[in-house]
């Protein structure tokens, strides 16, 4: 279900300055010192009561990070980030591992209530008919509560915070963490490896179809705080899980850094469906403030006939740098990437995917819909690479961009590499403006210009919206409408 | 320069040879701007895969040697070269002929008569000896205008600007139509040398020009052939340009066309790449308002050859139409690369741009890379690109075979049909016939592995 | 002419058996209709006879005038006299219809040790056949099947049949996607090619084609085998009763 419950009606007269989730909560927190050093890495590890090997892993990452340079190849521009001006750890004070919701700071619960995130299980049950969703809520750096755990445990499903998993299931974490996104994969992934504070852990045992949607809700609250969560999902043979992720942050003048790592592993015949609605604060219309979102998401189709499907609706963040990818290692495995990226104001999006075909008869499908408005820049960057051994591979990419207004840019940068004749790789892309004829038609039927744009855009992104679980799709659709308000005039 | 750039510290063998060659010949080569051009190259050396524009064509590794710059051939060598090259395929097109051997103009082998009033052809070499300056940032200031498209910063352009020995200057006066096409025929003496040419084509407002270029070199000789053609097409003018690259199997060919197309002008460009162990063909086109660009390419590679077609089409005026279609047939262990970028400036409303890149892999170890880009800053546009890589269609093969056509012939028919979309579009009948014959010869020359 | 004995075939990639011991004998001059429910293996039979890749024959034989068809590649089968009129003729961009027909005819003639046909003779042959099938000059000039309507594609198949003069013509659901006028043109084209030394295997789901191409024998194919054979009246019976009974019988 939904990241957001309030309806668009309640956020009338919004322009891009009026970000709906821009409230700040006054919650006492426990923070590491400002800036980054080995001491901070040790501090975080100690706070989490981590085993020694984990501390070593973090320190190794930190030392490697010191030797790396920030990547510059993406079409995004931002002032130099001062990594010493960021707090790398901030935890709501009362959360020394709440046993139940009653132990959670009431202020915190209020935040999630405001956001429309159902943390009270009974509330959820009373809420949407038949739709049960287990939620892991991550506030600034730590997981505050995970719902429906007992019911999941009956099926053998593990759904908890990653710090808890490190304590309770160290063998699983140790085996899989960093196995999809290596420590030195890229600048931000390495930074994350050193300082990640929390995130979600999911383990679906062999043959189990996860009985409900799993969801993580991320919220950045503290000033000057970076959020570095780490998510690890393992789907054993023949299992299935659908996982939803939502994000918001308060409205602030300064930029905040978010650098997450998500690793997915699908064994033989397993399927993971990962959906994101990203609505971090985008900054104001002049580009002041907003989240820098540098995310590494990668799925490993390790088993034969496995399938990983990424769906994303990206409407927030000042900068989005994100390429959810699939390594199609198992024979007959499949990767999908369904994306809607909306940019308005001064937002900059550089997002896409990588599909690496290694196994035989692997398939990938990429559908990307970019919508640029205002003075934003929206880039699709993708790679399809077919290895010589990936005989019989198939890949199809469809990449459409829509421009609204004269100040924005839409860019498409695909890399296609095929090394076997038995593979078939196809790529299509179009860029056009929103059709005047369609707009006029809608307006002549009584719609306002904004409603008409929303309607046409929703038609444009329909294929992707259909990939989302229903309640999420409804929310996403509203969010797209809200994001584009003020784009026609 | 007080500091040695970091990249200069570790030069590859080829880079060292290029440095030495420049030091050896710079005193002999007239014309300004050569040292500046060479400095632009030398700072970073041969581009490697981390340089975005060379991601798929890493010259740092692919170019392992650099033969000495070619000296002006003696009249005897020139005559023998022309004799060995045989009949000029474009003779049927009735073209005037400007012949270069190893990058040097050979007037005795050329026939420049009958191009008509208002059409002048001269050699860059003669101009240089006459003290005329063609260098600097570009010929006729064109370089300034090409800076945005990336041509001015390109290392291959820099090399051509540093080393060029000769080339054609073709000027077509406003309102003038060439009476016959001009063929620029590049021959190679067979010596392992580096040849560098630089052409200038200026078509005045409302004029019309047709240029055919043929590059030929013998198999088995490592020749590095560098070419830079700078062209301006005046308002309402037309330029038709056919570039036919039939290099030998050990040759390396680096060609750049940098062209500014003024308002209402038309550029029709065709490039056919056959042979060459390594080929990189670059087109930088800047399109004014209501211009029409057609650029089509056929790339046929086999052995261990690597052929790269790189295209930057920059729409800087309203309502221009660009159509690009590049097709490659890749056999054996060869590799084809296509990079194409359509860029639409904020003022270029009404742009209609379409680009297609298609590769067919004919053997198990053939490879194709494609990077078709759209970079759009104006909203009222209709731009699209499509790219495909795959084998010949099995369903088509079966259909043809079920009508009794044997497997080998079926493949030929389908390869010809695949490339036909490019070759059929060449308007001039005799020119099309030459290109079709090239394709046919390549197909016939495929060594059947099975 | 055509003798099929105990033919078993499966889809290679799936290992799923489609033909399960099919027997059929077709003599020169005869027209045999093969009918059956969807999924019975009708199209598979036509594909296996023409040599389409992707099928694996696991047992049985198929010979044309004593020549083992299954050992030949599709081009050699065509030269031996097999012609398949496709249910879905493919479009071949860049290959002109005339060029294609001439290439096919000459390839078959060469394979049979005959000389190539002269261009004037070929054009005469083509014009005659095209006229009978109402195929325009424009269709002949265009690439094979590209931009053709469904009816035009089917007429083009019959044109090829007329030019190539095969011994055995297999029509795979040629009536699908045709309106009644197009169906008549196609049927007349086929009837015009009837001769004492040529046989036809007409695969169809519906009886209506058989009103126009009258068969000598009708066979019901179900679950990969011929389960019933009879005269033209069997087709009418099927039209009235449907295939339900035969699906049962085969099971």
Automatic annotation (TrEMBL), chain A:
Please indicate which superkingdom the organism of origin belongs to.
Bacteria
Which residues belong to any copy of the SUF system FeS cluster assembly SufBD core domain?
Answer: 218-460
Which SUPFAM superfamilies does the UniProt record give? Stabilizer of iron transporter SufD
What GO terms in the biological process aspect are recorded for it?
Answer: iron-sulfur cluster assembly
Which residues, by range, are in coiled-coil regions? Answer: none
Q: Which InterPro entries match?
A: Fe-S_cluster_assembly_SufBD, SUF_FeS_clus_asmbl_SufB, SUF_FeS_clus_asmbl_SufBD_core, SUF_FeS_clus_asmbl_SufBD_sf, SufBD_N
Q: Which residues form the SUF system FeS cluster assembly SufBD N-terminal domain?
A: 151-209
Question: What does the sequence similarity comment in the record state about its family?
Answer: Belongs to the iron-sulfur cluster assembly SufBD family.
Matching NCBIfam families: PRK11814.1, sufB
Protein name as it appears in the record: Fe-S cluster assembly protein SufB
Q: Provide the species name.
A: Siculibacillus lacustris
The record's gene field reads sufB
From TrEMBL, chain B:
SUF system FeS cluster assembly SufBD core domain span: 189-418
> What is one Pfam family matched by this protein?
SufBD_N
Q: Name one GO biological process term.
A: iron-sulfur cluster assembly
Which InterPro entries does its entry note?
Fe-S_cluster_assembly_SufBD, SUF_FeS_clus_asmbl_SufBD_core, SUF_FeS_clus_asmbl_SufBD_sf, SUF_FeS_clus_asmbl_SufD, SufBD_N
- Outline the extent of the SUF system FeS cluster assembly SufBD N-terminal domain: 32-184
- Origin superkingdom: Bacteria
**TM region positions:** none
Q: Which family, according to the similarity comment?
A: Belongs to the iron-sulfur cluster assembly SufBD family.
PANTHER family in alphabetical order: PROTEIN ABCI7, CHLOROPLASTIC (PTHR43575)
Q: Which NCBIfam families match?
A: sufD
**Protein's UniProt name:** Fe-S cluster assembly protein SufD
From which organism does this entry originate?
Siculibacillus lacustris
Record gene name? sufD
UniProtKB/TrEMBL annotation, chain C:
Q: Which UniProt keywords apply?
A: ATP-binding, Nucleotide-binding
Q: Name one GO molecular function term.
A: ATP hydrolysis activity
Q: Which PROSITE patterns match?
A: ABC_TRANSPORTER_1, ABC_TRANSPORTER_2
Chain ranges of the ABC transporter domain: 2-248
CDD domains, alphabetized: ABC_FeS_Assembly
**The keyword Membrane belongs to this UniProt entry's keyword annotation:** no
> Does Disulfide bond appear among the keywords?
no
InterPro entries (alphabetical): AAA+_ATPase, ABC_transporter-like_ATP-bd, ABC_transporter-like_CS, FeS-cluster_ATPase_SufC, P-loop_NTPase
Family annotation (PANTHER family): ABC TRANSPORTER I FAMILY MEMBER 6, CHLOROPLASTIC (PTHR43204:SF1)
Q: Which family does it belong to?
A: Belongs to the ABC transporter superfamily. Ycf16 family.
Listed name of the protein: Fe-S cluster assembly ATPase SufC
- What species is this protein from? Siculibacillus lacustris
